[in-house]
Amino acid sequence: MSKNEIPYKIYLEESEMPKSWYNLRADMKNKPAPLLHPGTHQPLKLEELTPIFCEELAKQELDDKTPYIEIPEDIRNFYKMYRPSPLVRAYCLEQQLGTPAKIYYKFEGNNTSGSHKLNSAIAQAYYAKKQGLKGVTTETGAGQWGTALSMACSYFGLDCQVYMVKVSYEQKPFRREVMRTYGAKVTPSPSNTTKVGRAILEQFPGTTGSLGCAISEAVEAATSQEGYRYVLGSVLAQVLLHQSVIGLETMTALDKYGVKPDMIIGCAGGGSNLGGLIAPFMGRKLRGEADYQIIAVEPASCPSFTRGIYAYDFCDTGHVCPLAKMYTLGSEFIPSANHAGGLRYHGLSSVLSQLYDDKLMEARSVEQTSVFKAAEQFARIEGILPAPESAHAIRVAIDEALKCKETGEEKTIVFGLTGTGYFDLVAYQKFNDGEMNDYIPTDADLKKGFDTIPRFPGNLE
Ligand SMILES: *Cc1c(COP(=O)(O)O)cnc(C)c1O
Predict the structure, then answer these.
(1) Which residues of 354-393 are buried (b: 16+ CB within 10 A; e: fewer)?
(2) Which residues of the chain have a pLDDT value below 70?
(3) Which CATH class is domain 9-17+71-114+244-450?
(4) What's the 418 CA to ligand 1 centre distance in angstroms?
(5) How far is the CA of 346 from the centre of ligand 1 (A)?
(6) pLDDT confidence of residue 70
(7) Sequence-ordered list of residues with C-beta below 8 angstroms from that of 298, at least 6 positions apart, any chain
(8) How far apart (Å, rounded) are the C-alpha atoms in residues 346 and 327?
(9) Does any ligand 1 atom lie closer than 6 A to the CB of residue 390?
(10) In 3-state terms, the chain is what percent helix, strand and coil (to 5)?
(11) For the segment 63-88, what is each residue's pLDDT rounded down to a tens digit?
């Protein structure tokens, strides 16, 4: 196929959008390990999940058999307002790099929340509404998930209570105001609105909060109010399921033009965008229909895949959530304070962790100054100001394209551009001022985190 036949942007027709999500677990021979009860260490049953999670979402969480799950029409209609998202051929970047590689990126930043998180937020809000709930609670760190959820809740007329890590609440007032504009109640965490928040405030007066603490508050808020449930924006299998729209659209668009990717690259925080992007491709790979090189990219300062341990661990520092088996750095691992590039979660989705352990995908870690260099280069030549998280994938896509330049290979590279970076300008400022540096945790730093992974028969003992 000649260059001119492939447009810069491959849009799909509305009629070509997926009507079902694809549940990758159905095609996995080695299923991801089940969530365990943190007290009994037994696999969680539906009735243990439903007091915390919406019923339909809990069912999706436990379903590792059904390959296709229909997307309800109300969700499809919402998707149509900002999807299909474009798959862009990065002709300008290719030319600048002088590479024979062909580079495509799937851009998920075309909505007010600025990221892919809306794909799952709208699904989760829909099921909460359908169950007749009054509202949902959640935590947010930097605010992308909270923003997406506020948009989704306002659309369905649900109450949305967001516990926002106090330091972000104070330092990132703009995301907070977007959430409030969509009607969410945003509380800086720790707060005196929950028992756990009050206890933490008493023990550590003046604390600026943490994601783990915000999760504990959000869970307590959900279980102590009639008609509320707790929702989560990444890591869980249900979130990867909803995010499969990214991969399904990408596959349809590439198939339409007869393009076969050699390599699929995505950034990995909790694993939801990567899990969604690769889902249908990994499905083909698992069924033996095609082969792809799949690469997860993570920060060198939070290297869950490349240096973590595969074990059951707590999903939160407050230890109120179920145990998940995953590549983890330990729930009390905290990346260095100078880390500005996002993707700071200590573990990775059980689905991706199993695939990685089965050597069906690879992982790379990259240092943040090189990530921001890639972000700058991409912004200047392709126009889009990327989120720092997304720039991890850009870094590896550029590196791989440069390798092709050396070897003369015409590889087709697809990467996920998860969002825009307008709310990350403090990080860009650090980079522009030459004040950004790299910190790679030492083995001793990592050991402190590993020591917080629970030990019980069958888990690290
Ligand atoms: C939240 C976020 C990520 C990382 O989360 P995953 O669940 O790993 O996808 C990546 N990019 C952007 C823009 C985000 O907001």
Answers:
(1) bbbbeebbebbbbbbebbbbbbbbbbebbebbbbbbbbbb
(2) 1-4
(3) alpha beta
(4) 7
(5) 14
(6) 98
(7) 267, 268, 304, 305, 306, 343, 363, 364, 365, 366, 392
(8) 9
(9) yes
(10) 45, 20, 40
(11) 999 999 999 999 999 999 999 999 99
What does pTM read for this prediction?
0.97
In angstroms, the Cα distances linking 169 to 140, 141, 321 are 9, 9, 23
* CATH 3.40.50.1100 domain range(s) in the chain: 9-17+71-114+244-450, 36-67+116-230
User: What's the CATH code, domain 36-67+116-230?
Assistant: 3.40.50.1100
Angle at 96 between CA 90 and CA 98, to 5 degrees: 100
Pocket test for ligand 1, best of 272, 326, 353 (most atoms within 8 A of CB): 272
Q: 217 Cβ partners below 8 Å, 6+ apart?
A: 139, 163, 187, 189, 190, 191, 193, 194, 196, 197
Per-residue pLDDT at 28: 98
Distance between the two ends of the chain, CA-based, in angstroms?
A: 55
271 touches ligand 1 (CB under 6 Å): yes
- Residues forming a β-bridge with 419: 115
DSSP letter for each residue of 338-371: T--SS---SB--HHHHHHHHTTSSEEEEE-HHHH
Q: Which residues contact 82 (CB under 8 A, 6 or more apart)?
A: 110, 111, 118
Distances (CA, A) of 305 to 219, 326, 331, 350, 401: 27, 9, 14, 12, 23
How much distance in Å is there from the Cα of 433 to the middle of ligand 1? Answer: 25
Could you tell me the two tokens for 390? 């997304």
